[in-house]
Write a sequence for this structure.
């Protein structure tokens, strides 16, 4: 197994965390990977190791409030998408690219990580040559199939209320997310109810530049993933109309494991090989 090297990162507002860097001997591309809601970076280390075997240097971002982050939501400690998009992600990207060899750069993510990767790339189009999405899609309730969609608006209103009432979302107790900041849940729920990535007071809106993204997209879905069905992925991709997109669905036979929202993380080899193969040998966007 490849050993990850922790890289200490500090945002402009003083928040600190460790970016986990996994480097192959001869990297052909570098990837900034954004986790799902409530998932610490270390849980993607098997995925980073699998990508290293394919020649991709992988840098695992840590969400504010989780894992190596110096902050925890609650007791008056709150934040939202502005802190993630304007402070933390640019700092991780800068740490990844500092002193890096001149190889193609990819940004990607799982679930919420994929959504915010799209937002970040829209805000800063030059930061990556390609976009990778795994089990990701907009949480917009109308983008889910019937009958699932009908119960979602109630849940989307309840979760931010619960986070505010408790000072943080008790995700481990309710089986959704982790100890999430109320601001994050409010901004996530706004997208889930309206279909738009926008935050009061944040200009331009997080999704404002997504329509101009030109980086090719590789997206993987899983056959039994009700949290990110193909319809929600297609809705997210509709906000990125310009680049070529390759969307593939993996079932249990292809994956060699249960094909759902999280189980692939324990069996990441097929996901890593598929992303690299579908991107082609030239990861600069010309493939």
């Amino acid at each position: 197994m490849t050993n990850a090297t922790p890289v200490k990162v500090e945002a402009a507002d003083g928040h600190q965390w460790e970016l986990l860097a996994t480097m192959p001997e001869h990297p052909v591309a570098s990837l900034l990977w954004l986790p799902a809601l409530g998932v610490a970076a270390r849980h993607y280390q098997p995925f980073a190791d699998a990508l290293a075997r394919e020649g991709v240097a992988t840098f695992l971002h840590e969400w504010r409030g989780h894992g190596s982050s110096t902050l925890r939501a609650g007791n008056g400690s709150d934040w939202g998408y502005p802190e993630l998009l304007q402070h933390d992600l640019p700092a991780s990207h800068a740490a990844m690219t500092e002193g890096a060899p001149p190889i193609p750069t990819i940004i990607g993510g799982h679930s919420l990580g994929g959504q915010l990767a799209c937002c970040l790339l829209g805000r800063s189009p030059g930061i990556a040559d390609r976009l990778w999405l795994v089990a990701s899609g907009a949480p917009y309730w109308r983008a889910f199939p019937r009958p699932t969609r009908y119960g979602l608006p109630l849940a989307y209103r309840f979760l931010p209320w619960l986070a505010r009432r408790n000072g943080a979302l008790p995700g481990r107790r309710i089986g959704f997310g982790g100890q999430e900041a109320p601001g994050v849940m409010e901004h996530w729920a706004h997208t889930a109810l309206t279909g738009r990535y926008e935050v009061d007071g944040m200009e331009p809106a997080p999704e404002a530049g997504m329509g101009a993204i030109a980086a090719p997209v590789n997206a993987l879905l899983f056959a039994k993933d009700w949290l990110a069905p193909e319809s929600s992925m297609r809705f997210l991709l509709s906000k990125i109309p310009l680049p070529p997109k390759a969307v593939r669905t993996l079932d249990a036979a292809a994956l060699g494991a249960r094909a759902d929202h999280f189980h692939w993380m324990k069996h990441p080899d097929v996901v890593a090989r598929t992303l690299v193969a579908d991107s082609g040998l030239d990861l600069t966007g010309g493939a």
